[in-house]
């Protein structure tokens, strides 16, 4: 919008992500790699399955010999090698058992009858029936898993299925999380009048760890310019990303932005988003390069929304994980009405999946200081600038999933 003095979220995201490349890889045992992102793709060493095997407990035979009683001349349990099957006979076989050379189908035992002279096999068994072919799941030499994939249950199973015990994953982005404000007190300590407990830290730590970051510094910073400069310098040395909460607005006790401008560079400030308008993006120098800086507003909901919209893609880019870079979008009908001003509103909603399609239920109080609005939210409904939304209108929602 031409007369909107605030920067768009898209412009801010592009500025934040510009020049970011994934961090180096590190080799890890697979049993410590859950939730980590592959830095290198993995090639299959083996065919899976490694040999033709039975999908059922039953009998292996030549399909052409079905429709008669066949003597049972071999027994093949899973884990034991199969000898060739002589013509005119069948083999007792169990699920996962190796198909004996010569056999070309398996009949499940429920379809057979045991007779004195052998096993009666019904007619019309197709060649290949109930055989799981070698390499059907994975072919040796093919790409098993691609770089950038977050290792979750099935991928870990695929690695184990290859006998692989180590992988190269992207190093976790190191994050320094600074809570500014004289009024902010750690849970466990007594509260004096005017003070509040630090709710942002616990919330952001959890979100950042879910996104794949490692917390290397977690500090509280008083409302003091020199102290803010000191801690920013220290944080920039030990972290890939420095995140602060509070102190980015226009008050006299808001020192973060001034400290950032003094020490490094403020790339962007004041966004057309609600909540989160005073969010500040920039960079701080460190010995071998620079450290990204994200200054989240102090209001807890601004921090929550800012984390999903900015920190998730930032951590994703540092991890080389495309799935983390954009939240999945889903269209839903609103169970609420609202009218919006010049900032895009990210309303906290609980999506319900009804027979009529997804419905977005908004928490009654959408103020940026009301963290209750986030507790049961599973999506952010994106209300465009100046929009008038009536009950039942369709809006786009961002689904709050970690990857
Ligand atoms: N004159 C103006 N005042 C404000 C503006 C403005 O444009 N002009 N913007 C408002 C908006 S919007 C926001 S958002 C806030 C952001 O201010 P800051 O980022 O400077 O944050 P603080 O002032 O330090 O704190 C705001 C609020 O959040 C509480 N807070 C801070 N840290 C924590 C924490 N770790 N845990 C829980 N709560 C926290 C703090 O006590 C304040 O109540 O500025 C508006 N003002
Ligand atoms: O932009 Mo602020 O985060 O609405 O309260």
TrEMBL record:
Q: Which InterPro entries match?
A: MoaB/Mog-like_dom_sf, MoaB/Mog_dom, MoCF_biosynth_CS, MoeA-like, MoeA_C_domain_IV, MoeA_C_domain_IV_sf, MoeA_linker/N, MoeA_linker/N_sf
Q: In which pathway does it act?
A: Cofactor biosynthesis; molybdopterin biosynthesis
Q: Which residues form the MoaB/Mog domain?
A: 176-317
List, alphabetically, the GO terms of the cellular component aspect.
cytosol
GO molecular-function terms, A-Z: metal ion binding; molybdopterin molybdotransferase activity
Alphabetized, the UniProt keywords read:
Magnesium, Metal-binding, Molybdenum, Molybdenum cofactor biosynthesis, Transferase
PROSITE patterns from the UniProt entry = MOCF_BIOSYNTHESIS_2
Any single biological process term in GO = Mo-molybdopterin cofactor biosynthetic process
Concerning Pfam families, the annotation shows: MoCF_biosynth (PF00994), MoeA_C (PF03454), MoeA_N (PF03453)
Which reactions fall under this protein's catalytic activity?
A: adenylyl-molybdopterin + molybdate = Mo-molybdopterin + AMP + H(+)
Cite the SMART domains for this sequence. MoCF_biosynth
Keyword Methyltransferase set for record: no
Biological function: Catalyzes the insertion of molybdate into adenylated molybdopterin with the concomitant release of AMP.
Q: Which family would the database say this protein is a member of?
A: Belongs to the MoeA family.
Q: What is the name listed in the Swiss-Prot or TrEMBL entry for this protein?
A: Molybdopterin molybdenumtransferase
The record lists the lineage as: Bacteria, Pseudomonadati, Pseudomonadota, Gammaproteobacteria, Oceanospirillales
């Amino acid at each position: 919008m031409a007369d909107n003095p605030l920067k768009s979220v898209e412009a801010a995201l592009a500025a934040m992500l510009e020049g970011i490349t994934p961090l180096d890889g590190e080799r890890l045992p697979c049993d410590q790699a859950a939730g980590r992102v592959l830095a290198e793709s993995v090639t299959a060493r083996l065919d899976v399955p490694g040999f033709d095997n039975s999908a059922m407990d039953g009998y292996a035979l030549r399909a052409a010999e079905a429709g008669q009683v066949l003597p049972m001349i071999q027994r093949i349990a899973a884990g034991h090698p199969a000898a060739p099957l002589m013509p005119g006979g069948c083999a007792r076989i169990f699920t996962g058992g190796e198909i004996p050379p010569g056999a070309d189908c398996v009949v499940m035992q429920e379809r057979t009858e045991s007779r004195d002279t052998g096993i009666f096999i019904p007619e019309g068994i197709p060649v290949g029936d109930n055989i799981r072919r070698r390499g059907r799941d994975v072919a040796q030499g093919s790409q098993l898993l691609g770089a950038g994939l977050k290792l979750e249950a099935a991928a870990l199973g695929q690695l184990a299925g290859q006998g692989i015990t180590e992988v190269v994953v992207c190093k976790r982005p190191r994050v320094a999380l600074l809570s500014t404000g004289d009024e902010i007190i750690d849970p466990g300590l007594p509260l004096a009048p005017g003070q509040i407990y630090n709710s942002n830290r616990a919330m952001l730590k959890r979100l950042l760890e879910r996104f794949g970051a490692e917390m290397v510094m977690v500090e509280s910073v008083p409302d003091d310019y020199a102290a803010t400069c000191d801690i920013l310098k220290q944080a920039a040395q030990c972290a890939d990303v420095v995140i602060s909460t509070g102190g980015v607005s226009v008050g006299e006790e808001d020192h973060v932005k001034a400290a950032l401008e003094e020490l490094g560079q403020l790339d962007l400030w004041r966004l057309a988003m609600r909540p989160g308008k005073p969010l500040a993006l920039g960079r701080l120098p460190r010995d071998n390069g620079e450290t990204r800086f994200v200054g989240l507003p102090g209001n807890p909901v601004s921090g929550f929304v800012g984390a999903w919209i900015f920190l998730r893609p930032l951590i994703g880019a540092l991890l080389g994980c495309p799935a983390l870079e954009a939240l999945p979008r889903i269209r839903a009908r609103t169970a609420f009405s609202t009218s919006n001003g010049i900032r895009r509103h990210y309303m906290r909603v609980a999506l319900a999946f009804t027979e009529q399609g997804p419905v977005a239920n908004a928490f009654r109080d959408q103020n940026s200081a009301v963290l209750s609005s986030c507790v049961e939210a599973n999506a952010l409904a994106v209300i465009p600038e100046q929009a008038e939304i009536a009950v039942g209108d369709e809006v786009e929602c961002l689904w709050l999933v970690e990857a």
